[in-house]
Each structure stands twice: as C-alpha cells, then as structure tokens.
Design brief:
This protein is of the alpha+beta class. The chain is built from seven helices and seven strands, in the order βαααββααβαβαββ.
Amino acid sequence: MEIVRITEEGFPDAARVLGDAFMDDPMVLWTLGGDFSDREALRHRMALFFTEINRGSVAEGMMWGTDDGKGVAVWLTPETTEVYEAEDLEMRPRLAPLSDDDGARYAVFWDWIAAHIPEEPTWFLDQIAVEADHRGKGIGAALIEHGVAMAEQAGQQGFLETGNPRNVAYYERFGFEVVSEGDGPDGGPHVWFMLRP
C-alpha cells in the first residue's frame, strides 16, 4: 500500500470517501442539523460538505490517500493550518445552505474546536476516512503513521480531535493522549482533544 498526495483528479472520489465515512459522525451531523432519515439525501449532502471544506486541502497538498483510493486523510502542517483557517472563514457562506440554520452552529462549533489547537508548531490530523468495506485492513493505520512520520521528521507534535468515544483508544495506539475534553457550545457533542508529543 502506498500513500500518495490526492490530486484534483482524485479529489471527487476522496470527498465521497470522507462523506460516506462521516455520515454518522456526531460532530458533523450536529453542525449541519436537519433530517438525516433519508440516507441517500444525506450521502449527497455529505459529499457536497466535504468537497467544499477540502478545496483548499487538495490545492495546498494537505490531502493524502492510499494509491487504491480506499482511504484518505487530511494532515494540516503548521504552515498550512493558518491557510486552512482563513479558507474556512471564506467558505462558510457556501456551507450555509447545507445546514438547517444558515451555518450558525457550524461557525460556533468549529471556532470552539480551533481554539483548542495548540499554539506550538503542530501537525493536525483534521480528517481521516476509510471505505466501509475496507476497514480493519490497516489502511487507517497507514494514513496515521504516514502523518506521524512526517511530524516526527519535522520534530513537531501531532494533534487531533474526535467526537467518537471508540476512536480514543484507537488513536492512543499511535501515541496520542487525551489532553482535554468537553461538550461543544450550545449543546454540541462531546469532543476529545488528543496530542502526540
């Protein structure tokens, strides 16, 4: 298995993999709100969401995937984190129609998340996904280890957040430790913030 940078050509498939993987994610679903009973409509909505939020990621070379397209991860470097934050503010009007409150929850919640990112130079695992039929085969581990190796080579720490309690033990296998946790503002989901020194 080879880890490669996602190109513009492979971006639509990568956005689909991310969208499918996050269809039950409490953080994304809470920020979008609305009716999630129509799974096909939700799948389409999630693909649009992950396309919008990752246009800058692919353009800046922050999106990585397996050469077979079964897994994808977005690793923000210390240099690209500021770029990503600026692009996030610019894209919010485009994301607003995908939510049921014109993007209000999205803005409050992701500003809260951003406030937890360490000030020290940090490699931030922003997103990771593996196609459902290919989970448990080491793809996610390879994508995490790839980013961890880049961070170690740079002599810098790693960071991530998760709203899924099952993920905490998984990320601990790669040296991440919970440094804080809490409920998102305005009734948002519980989130664990994890650091890899």
